[in-house]
């Protein structure tokens, strides 16, 4: 009985994390991130005070590529959410999500400061995303049960 309860808790964690990423991706898409450059004003504002490696990254890469990066962020968050909800390619999705979080924290200047320790969402989000991606909730709780032909694409 304990194993089934643990499995349900892990499934709930995976679905919760999936819904979080799906909602963020859908919010960005509905806000126009696919048709407009919504990321550029934020990056330009952060680049005004940025120095060193972060300033060079923002000025030479992130700001000029902000249109494509904005699309990648919106679609990436949507894809991570779908992967977690479907139970499909969860490990690559978890690493993609962590890359998204670390990249935006670095670009916004929050990654290498002590303020990140006071963030109420940073570490829980990273840990929950990693856990949900790596903990096996069984094939009975994934899309593989309903679409077995997709097993050939499974990357565990």
What would your notes on this structure say?
This protein is an all-alpha fold. The protein has one domain (2-153). It is built from 6 helices and no strands. The longest helix is centred in the N-terminal third of the chain and has 29 residues, at 2-30. The mean pLDDT is 80.
Question: Could you outline the blueprint of secondary structure elements for this entry?
Answer:
Blueprint: H1 2-30, H2 40-47, H3 52-62, H4 66-86, H5 90-107, H6 122-134
Observed structural traits:
156 residues; mainly alpha
What radius of gyration results from the CA coordinates?
18 Å
Helix count equals 6
Helix content: 55-70%
Major sheet, described briefly? none
| Run of helices and strands | HHHHHH
Number of structural units classed as domains? 1
Uncertain segments of ≥5 residues (pLDDT<50)?
none
Short description, anyone?
The protein is an all-alpha fold and 156 residues long.
């Amino acid at each position: 009985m304990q194993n089934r309860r643990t499995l349900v808790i892990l499934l709930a964690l995976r679905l919760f994390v999936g819904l979080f990423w799906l909602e963020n991706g859908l919010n960005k898409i509905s806000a126009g991130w696919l048709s407009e450059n919504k990321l550029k004003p934020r990056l330009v504002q952060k680049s005004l005070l940025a120095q060193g490696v972060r300033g060079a990254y923002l000025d030479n890469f992130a700001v000029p590529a902000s249109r494509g990066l904005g699309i990648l962020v919106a679609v990436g968050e949507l894809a991570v959410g779908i992967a977690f909800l479907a139970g499909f390619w969860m490990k690559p999705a978890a690493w993609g999500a962590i890359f998204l979080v670390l990249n935006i924290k670095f670009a916004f200047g929050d990654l290498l400061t002590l303020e990140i320790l006071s963030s109420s969402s940073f570490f829980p989000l990273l840990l929950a995303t990693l856990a949900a991606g790596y903990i096996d909730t069984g094939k009975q709780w994934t899309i593989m049960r309903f679409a077995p032909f997709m097993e050939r694409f499974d990357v565990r």
